Amino acid sequence: MTDEQEKTAAEPIRVGVLGARGRMGLEVCKAVDAATDMDLVAMVDQGDWLFNASDAGAEVVVDFTTPDVVMDNLHWCIDQGISAVVGTTGFTEQRLDRVRGWLERKPGVGVVIAPNFGIGAVLMMQFAARAARHFESVEIVEQHHPRKLDAPSGTATHTARLIAQARAEAGLGPVPDATKDEVAGARGADIDGVRVHAVRATGLVAHQEVLFGTVGETLTIRHDSYDRASFMPGVLLAVRAVRNRPGLTIGLDALLD
Ligand SMILES: NC(=O)C1=CN([C@@H]2O[C@H](COP(=O)(O)OP(=O)(O)OC[C@H]3O[C@@H](n4cnc5c(N)ncnc54)[C@H](O)[C@@H]3O)[C@@H](O)[C@H]2O)C=CC1
Ligand SMILES: O=C(O)C1=N[C@H](C(=O)O)C[C@H](O)C1
């Protein structure tokens, strides 16, 4: 066992939470606090000083903030040599490339960015990617609480990209659709050729259906998060893994294998 491995085995991981007063942040603070192998050393929200996290000796920062601040937070963490677990949405390919660039200059730092930390949601995306090449039609319906700031969800966008990639690899053409949009938006957003519909309603938390169709049959793959506690096993898994995964990891898939 190396010195670093011994340290990892013996000492609790010092964790800071950004967005600590938000819906997810509060849940993460609770989960980290309850984990015997972690110490919650900093809770940072809007208006607080990011240096609270480094001053407190955070080794891993968990970010559940907003798409407009997450890049600055992440750049700061990487500069400070702090590994990060990020659930905040809004990561385009361009943003991911910028993160890779920052990480090149800090080779020891790990970052895990996951569009969804729910284990069931990760499996739903994997099943959807697997089914994609067998069906000529596919649409995604995501459903969330009405205080969600972005649409479509990060999960739906990621799922659409996975499906589009699987369809391209299988040589499938465009999804058949003769409909002319009489009202803008009636057919949802188009993400890499996959239609995505976003529903917002009080009472919902986070839900997604992927509907596949081919001649004579349909297949619906559905996932429901009824409580934000559903994301915590995935968040804690990433916190435990991130320091041993230098560079950028996207999604939880590699951590679950
Ligand atoms: N990957 C996943 O599994 C999940 C991702 N999310 C995503 O996480 C993000 C947060 O979601 P919620 O907790 O529902 O939102 P929220 O609005 O309840 O929480 C965001 C928090 O970030 C704080 N904040 C804003 N700017 C900040 C800054 N510069 N530094 C520190 N804190 C700052 C806000 O004051 C607020 O307390 C969203 O992008 C959402 O889509 C949400 C659930 C699961
Ligand atoms: O804002 C949310 O609530 C959620 N955001 C993530 C997303 O946009 O996919 C994950 C989950 O759907 C909950």
Automatic annotation (TrEMBL):
Subcellular location: Cytoplasm
Entry's Gene Ontology BP terms: diaminopimelate biosynthetic process; lysine biosynthetic process via diaminopimelate
Catalytic activity as recorded in UniProt: (S)-2,3,4,5-tetrahydrodipicolinate + NAD(+) + H2O = (2S,4S)-4-hydroxy-2,3,4,5-tetrahydrodipicolinate + NADH + H(+); (S)-2,3,4,5-tetrahydrodipicolinate + NADP(+) + H2O = (2S,4S)-4-hydroxy-2,3,4,5-tetrahydrodipicolinate + NADPH + H(+)
NCBIfam families recorded: dapB
Protein's job: Catalyzes the conversion of 4-hydroxy-tetrahydrodipicolinate (HTPA) to tetrahydrodipicolinate.
Pathway(s) the chain acts in: Amino-acid biosynthesis; L-lysine biosynthesis via DAP pathway; (S)-tetrahydrodipicolinate from L-aspartate: step 4/4
Full protein name: 4-hydroxy-tetrahydrodipicolinate reductase
Alphabetic keyword roster: Amino-acid biosynthesis, Cytoplasm, Diaminopimelate biosynthesis, Lysine biosynthesis, NAD, NADP, Oxidoreductase
Ligand binding (NAD(+)): 19-24, 45, 87-89, 114-117
Leader peptide range in chain numbering: none
Domain (Dihydrodipicolinate reductase N-terminal): residue spans on this chain: 13-117
Domain Dihydrodipicolinate reductase C-terminal: 120-255
Keyword Amino-acid biosynthesis attributed: yes
InterPro entries in UniProt: DapB_C, DapB_N, DapB_N_CS, DHDPR_bac, NAD(P)-bd_dom_sf
Gene (UniProt): dapB
UniProt-annotated binding residues for (S)-2,3,4,5-tetrahydrodipicolinate: 145, 154-155
EC number: 1.17.1.8
Subunit-structure text: Homotetramer.
Homology family: Belongs to the DapB family.
Domain of life assignment: Bacteria
PROSITE patterns listed in its UniProt record: DAPB
